[in-house]
């Protein structure tokens, strides 16, 4: 059977009940079931997330005082590895995992497109991530002194980008081609639409990162590392994915999760749907940042386009905020943890885009050091993590078949908001120290606060993981097909967890909220 | 009187999953080269702006071989489309022939590229130019080989009787990926070989 074929078992009748037997290792490693693949992505990314935020906290803590517990080179490599890792090992795979699991359900498909390719992508990503971490720890991070370790890091990064792109192609193709009859593109659920926008932006920009890595590797391997592969400039060439505006590209699916969670848990239809779709699309367009590479275009920050993108970015977020706020007014909010996490994600996103707008204002001179931009990075990644945690809490009952412990989720609302705000805002305040000399004395204290914020974000990742696992524990209350009782989109029409093939016969979809229509 | 019974209506066809997937993959591959060529052009502007020649002393890029490759790849676009059109008419023999010709033209392009590398006398360790030119042209060869494997695989599946006039998405998908690789070469031709 070719890689592109659909596995026969994924296209069968959905009336069968999900088997309760423990799967064999062969089934686990060989499955092309989008639910298993998506779950593996989410579990692994959460574990990497805990490690990534701990590494970020350590690399920040190194900057405090004069007696550092890490050598300068080690701290630099740790910081750079955690920056890249939080994007490529945590946020993108978290959203991709949720997309692989949920998008087929939301569009009424029996499987993800190219299920074996999706599985191959997940295992390649997991393997490459492991190699990336190991290689980074043996002095192979950017600027590392062990040549073979650096080569290994570069190749692992290349492998995991190819894997993420392949996984993205599978999810995008599902959303474009496997929609159930009647589900036009303007009727797809918000998360699916945001995956379409976000996935398209990833497909356009992550290959450019691959091009950067390719040049670094070729120069490092065949030219003695004198130009692109020079130790001092390696990270600079790939750092654009951690900066404005590209960093926003990794938040896009989060907006869709926030909208879906708010619609369901307020019990209201999203009234301003077209405005929300436009806001997500505009947010995506303004996040294309592959051209703003400091190594190739050192004066990009003087470019009017870059400044305009940064200044305009709050507008789609405010538009989105207004659109979803109406659902609170029209409906009756249910005080469940996914709703709280969605609100936290939205607030952190607002903070990140306003910080980004300040960053591009040249007279403020916030770009003279990297500190303010690092604070904005922490805010953005924390917003994405909160959105992913909201999605995990919201779809957790669907994924595990059991109700997860909402108390853990509610605790996570506080932890992630505290972590994101402390971790990001304190660094943003430090970024103003070139204008307010009084801040110099508070530098160490603020960096410690930021470090504590990053540690809290690691705890937030752990709580999200525990919350998901709590739904799978023995004795967890069984989740109904419509776990929240107010589901609007098709994923809530199939059993929890979905049976093989997901659905039986579906009626023709006639609105963006098919479960609120009588025909289904 | 004999009643004519019409065949049952065809089942609703899914949109072309493989073609859409191949288009996304082709777009991602295309962006790799957009990134590489963007960096190439930016570096060349910097070097030329500083008053020095772009190519190191002794290195040369002849135009005859790149032009021949371009013509070869344009011909391959026609042969690939010939394969798609033939299978759409259930003309399997012509489809096999056209895919075979496409593969031969692909091999000819690879051979010509390696000959061009020999003629250029450009050492990869000669500096930024060598790294950029060999990375871009080498990556294109890798993508061309992948496209050839895709075409060959679809050709084998056609030989196995998997494609018909009604359902030949595999060959169309291979064609989409092939065209993207030819478009990439057009970019390389103009930015590296012509405007050197």
Question: Describe it for me?
Answer:
- The complex is a heterodimer of chains A (520) and B (196).
- With 520 residues, chain A is mainly alpha-helical.
- Helices cover 63% and strands 0% of the residues of chain A.
- Chain A is built from 15 helices and no strands.
- Chain A is globular and about 60 Å long.
- The model of chain A is unreliable at 1-21 (pLDDT under 50).
- Chain B has 196 residues and is mainly α.
- Chain B is built from 5 helices and no strands.
- The interface between A and B is large, with 40 and 37 residues.
How would you summarize what this structure contains?
By secondary structure, chain A is an all-alpha fold.
Task: Provide key terms for this protein.
heterodimer; A: 520 residues; mainly alpha; 15 helices; globular; B: 196 residues; 5 helices
- Uncertain runs of chain A are 1-21
Helix content of chain A: 55-70%
Main β sheet profile of chain A: none
% residues in beta strands of chain A: under 5%
Please describe the topology of this protein.
The complex is a heterodimer of chains A (520) and B (196).
Chain A: H1 25-30, H2 34-61, H3 72-106, H4 115-140, H5 147-177, H6 190-222, H7 234-238, H8 252-266, H9 273-285, H10 304-312, H11 314-330, H12 337-359, H13 371-400, H14 406-431, H15 443-472
Helix pairs in contact in A: 2-3, 2-4, 2-15, 3-4, 3-5, 3-13, 4-5, 5-6, 6-8, 6-9, 8-9, 8-11, 8-12, 8-13, 9-11, 10-12, 11-12, 12-13, 12-14, 13-14, 13-15, 14-15
Chain B: H1 17-49, H2 64-88, H3 92-120, H4 128-159, H5 169-194
């Amino acid at each position: 059977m070719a890689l592109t074929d659909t596995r026969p078992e994924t296209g069968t009748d959905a009336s069968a009940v999900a088997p309760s037997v423990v799967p064999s290792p062969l089934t686990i490693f060989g499955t092309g079931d989008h639910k298993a693949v998506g779950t593996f992505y989410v579990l692994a990314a959460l574990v990497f997330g805990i490690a990534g935020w701990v590494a970020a906290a350590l690399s920040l803590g190194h900057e405090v005082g004069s007696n550092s517990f890490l050598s300068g080179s080690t701290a630099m490599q740790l910081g750079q590895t955690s920056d890249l890792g939080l994007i490529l090992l945590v946020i993108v795979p978290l959203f991709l995992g949720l997309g692989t699991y949920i998008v087929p359900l939301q569009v009424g498909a029996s499987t993800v497109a190219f299920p074996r390719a999706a599985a191959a992508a997940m295992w390649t990503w997991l393997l490459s991530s492991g190699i990336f971490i190991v290689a980074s720890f043996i002095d192979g991070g950017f600027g590392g002194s062990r040549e073979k370790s650096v080569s290994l890091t570069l190749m692992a990064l290349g492998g995991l980008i190819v894997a993420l792109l392949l996984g993205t192609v599978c999810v995008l193709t599902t959303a474009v081609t496997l929609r159930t009859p009647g589900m036009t593109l303007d009727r797809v659920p918000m998360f699916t639409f945001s995956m379409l926008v976000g996935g398209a932006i990833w497909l356009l920009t992550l290959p450019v990162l691959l091009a950067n890595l390719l040049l670094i590797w070729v120069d490092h391997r065949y030219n003695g590392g004198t130009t692109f592969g020079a130790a001092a400039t390696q990270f600079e060439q790939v750092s654009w994915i951690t900066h404005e505006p590209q960093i926003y590209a990794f938040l896009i699916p989060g907006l869709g999760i926030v909208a879906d969670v708010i619609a369901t848990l307020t019990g209201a239809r999203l009234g301003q749907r077209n405005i929300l779709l436009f806001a997500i699309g505009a947010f995506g367009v303004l996040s294309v940042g592959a051209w703003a590479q400091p190594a190739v275009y050192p004066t990009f920050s003087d470019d009017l386009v870059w400044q305009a993108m940064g200044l305009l970015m709050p507008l789609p977020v405010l538009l989105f905020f207004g659109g979803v706020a109406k659902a609170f007014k029209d409906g009756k909010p249910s005080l469940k943890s996914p709703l709280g996490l969605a609100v936290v994600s939205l607030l952190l996103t607002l903070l990140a885009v306003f910080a980004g707008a300040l960053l591009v204002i040249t007279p403020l001179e916030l770009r003279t050091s990297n500190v303010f931009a690092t604070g904005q990075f922490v805010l953005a990644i924390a917003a994405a993590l909160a959105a992913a945690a909201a999605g995990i809490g919201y779809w957790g009952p669907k994924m595990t078949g059991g109700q997860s412990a909402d108390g853990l989720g509610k605790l996570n609302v506080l932890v992630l908001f505290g972590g994101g705000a402390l971790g990001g805002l304190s660094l943003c305040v430090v970024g103003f120290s070139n204008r307010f000399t009084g801040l110099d004395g508070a530098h160490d204290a603020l960096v410690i606060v930021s470090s504590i914020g990053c540690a809290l974000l690691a705890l937030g990742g752990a709580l999200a993981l525990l919350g998901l696992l709590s739904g799978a524990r023995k004795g967890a209350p069984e989740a109904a097909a419509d776990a929240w009782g107010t589901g609007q989109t098709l994923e809530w029409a199939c059993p929890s967890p979905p049976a093989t093939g997901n659905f039986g016969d579906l009626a023709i979809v006639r609105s963006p909220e098919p479960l609120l229509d009588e025909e289904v | 009187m004999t009643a004519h019974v019409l065949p049952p209506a065809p089942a609703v066809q899914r949109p072309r999953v493989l073609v859409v997937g191949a288009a996304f993959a082709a777009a991602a591959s295309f962006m790799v080269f957009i990134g590489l060529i963007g960096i190439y052009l930016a570096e060349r502007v910097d070097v030329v702006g500083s008053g020095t020649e772009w190519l190191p002393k002794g290195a040369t890029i002849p135009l005859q071989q790149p032009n021949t490759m371009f013509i070869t790849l344009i011909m391959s676009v026609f042969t690939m489309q010939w394969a798609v059109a033939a299978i759409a008419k259930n003309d399997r023999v012509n489809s096999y022939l056209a895919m075979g010709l496409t593969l031969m033209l692909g091999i000819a392009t690879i051979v010509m590229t390696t000959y061009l590398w020999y003629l250029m006398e450009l050492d990869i360790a000669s500096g930024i130019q060598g790294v950029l030119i060999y990375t871009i042209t080498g990556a294109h060869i890798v993508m061309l080989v992948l496209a050839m494997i895709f075409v060959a695989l679809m050709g084998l599946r056609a030989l196995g009787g998997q494609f018909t006039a009604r359902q030949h998405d595999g060959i169309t998908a291979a064609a989409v990926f092939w065209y993207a690789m030819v478009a990439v070469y057009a970019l390389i031709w103009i930015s590296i070989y012509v405007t050197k």
